[in-house]
Amino acid sequence: MGMFTMPSLGADMEAGTLVEWLVNPGDTVKRGDVVAVVETQKGAIEIETFEAGTVHQLQAELGQKLPVGAPLAVIVGEDEAAPEAMSASTPDEPSAEPAGAPPSPAPTVEPMVVEAPPRPAAAPTPVAQPPQGHVASPAARRRAAELGVDLATVTGTGLGGAIQMADVEGAAGAAQAKTGAATVSAPEAVKPSPLVEMRKAIAAAMARSKREIPHFYVSQTIDLQPATEWLDTTNADRAPANRILMGALFVRACALAAAKVSTVNGHFTDDEFHRSDAVHAGVAIALRGGGLVAPALIDAHKKGLDAIMADMRDLVTRARAGRLRGSEMTMGTITISALGDAGAEAMSGVIFPPQVALVGIGAPQRRPWVIGDAVEPRQTVAVTVSVDHRVCDGRQAAKFLVEFEAHMQSPEAL
Length: 414
What we know:
The chain is of the alpha+beta class and 414 residues long. The chain has 8 helices and 20 strands.
């Protein structure tokens, strides 16, 4: 029997709010299935189970804010017998207070125990669907259906204009104030905006990184002309939706270089470096309205350019809609942050703990370049790798950049 608990979805995450269950008691799940949606400082994240079996009990209610490690559900393995009904108390706790003892304080979280098969329930409240062009969190859609609020009339304050539950309740309160209705009370206090919460999360993670990780930086400017010309030729006959962007080449070259120079690829935890054989390349994504996330592109070293490009488009779409998965937020082994076509020509980034390296790529620049005995105008780009000196030294970081450059010089082989 496995206990499915609130996972840690970031280096400084302490708690998350359960906003949606995607399974019911009696459902069969396998490793990697998405079973719930949790709202954190960085938005709504789909969480997966790493247990296979049958969902026996759901032990948390929607809307509960739960600390990392709190029980969410019980999953019974294929060859295991279903346990008796489980209560909120642990086996070591007495079921009743001793005579004359003062009452114990109420638990912070009162688990919801549901056993399979469930009793017939009343029809659920229909969930309002956001109109075309609007993004709303699951909790906001459910609350809008309960209050009869048209999501087309609600202005979202979340990341990228996403509609949050507080936006729905505020719109309902404003409408009732106009009509004199009083069925919904206004919030007692103004909640911080999701962007403010995200900035707090970023501040905590980056402060921890610079405080605990001894960074050093190695930079190199590389000739980008072969990759630029290859992309122009490759994309000439492709529809816009199927074209490969330079960012996909950067991710692929980084993944192959990290697989070769493994001291930049992995996690530093418990005062020890844990080298990773797989390369899960984190891709820094700027969110509309501000904020940043870096979900991982899983097994980037095994994927071709078309697959990487498709995965990057998918990550960007889901990141801006607040629908990333927990594994994507925690499994990254090295991160790539590129400034795009317009920006500063170089960047030295801050490592995302518990990773040990981050590759910062500046905006491409047209510069004079020596080819043999001649000087030609070429597209170039500055690449800077930020490295944890507890794990890696300058020689290995330089070797990583040499590998990266070699792959960018032969884009047809990527």
